[in-house]
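User: Predict structure, ligand adenosine-5'-diphosphate.
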Amino acid sequence: MSAAEEFTVSAAEVSDAFTALYGYAPAGVWAAPGRVNLIGEYTDFNEGFVMPLALPHTAVAAVARRDDGILRVHSADVAGPVVELTVDGLTPLSDGGWAAYPAGVVWALRDAGHAVGGGADVHLASTVPTGAGLSSSAALEVVTALALSDLYELRLTRSELALLAQRAENAFVGVPCGVMDQMASAACEAGHVLHLDCRDLSVRQVPFDLAGDGLTLLVVDTRVKHALGDGAYAERRAGCEAGARALGVSHLRDVPFAELPSALDRLPGADDRVRRYVRHVVSDDHRVERVISLLNAGDVRGIGPVLTEGHASLRDDLRISCPELDLVVEAAGAAGALGARMTGGGFGGSAVVLAEAADADAVAKSVREAFAGAGFAAPRVFPAVASAGARRL
Ligand code: ADP
Ligand code: MG
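Assistant: Predicted complex:
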């Protein structure tokens, strides 16, 4: 079984389950992946740069269009009956549980003027681990958005799909996320990492054939999610905005790396917090540039230390790491990995580790042993193979 097969639910399986559930066959089956971010963290809402790659893990949805204004959604991964809603009655922030993600997409589409009022029947199943910082929520939103775009012949572009999915999560579910996760799920391509400019959503597909270079990118899911993370994202975001205001720029993306020292000098010395956030964002945007240069030069191994440097910045300046994530980076480094960093929102979730393919098993073993030694629950470790973005199956 290939890595991709192992992490994918088959279209036939989801289609059959739809038929068993609703009593008729779906119009089609769509898939959208989870992601890991290679570098560029908390830079998306600063209109900076990120470099995610899609995972082989996907949310797969069988969908049919309706014409009576009813939306029915069901997940194979959640115990419970079909959730039935009326399209006209969709209300933001109404605490609809998991169904808020697909329902939010229908709401966002209508709010943007797209005629999807007929409704739909949706059955989905996902192999993206939930709450692990791998964007299971974005996968759910994007697969729903793509299916509806196809069924209602909206012909939405990848950026439009991502923005609508983000709006669903921000305004309907109530999670203030940036646009990286949805863009990664919508626009990534197999064998590539996505160089995304979060200002104008322009993308460049950068070839990323780690296996061809004898390398492996491991994902280590710590399986922890510290409650601290809930308010921290909004706090970091507000701090970044305060930094941009104090520096007279619209977003921190507009502070060139070469001007970082003088920018820091210009910030009120009293608030060390804002200075740290500015330093993280401006230096992480620069790390994206460095990774691009290294990849362009064919020096894939050279990105290892840049990843580890990025982790230190997230740990010490942004302060969104946690003991489990720090231990992954430390243990992987001690076991000979080329570099490692936490990925995603922080306070738990997952880390990425770049290692020689020949060393990957030993590195994974060392991380597991370090976790056992520290009394942490066993992490889940798997290779991140750069996979395709959202698609009809
Ligand atoms: P992440 O996106 O990092 O996995 P989030 O907290 O943003 O974590 O999103 C996780 C939520 O998305 C879950 O709590 C659930 O509501 C929803 N979700 C994800 N996958 C599924 C699924 N397969 N079935 C139903 N709901 C899901
Ligand atoms: Mg999410």
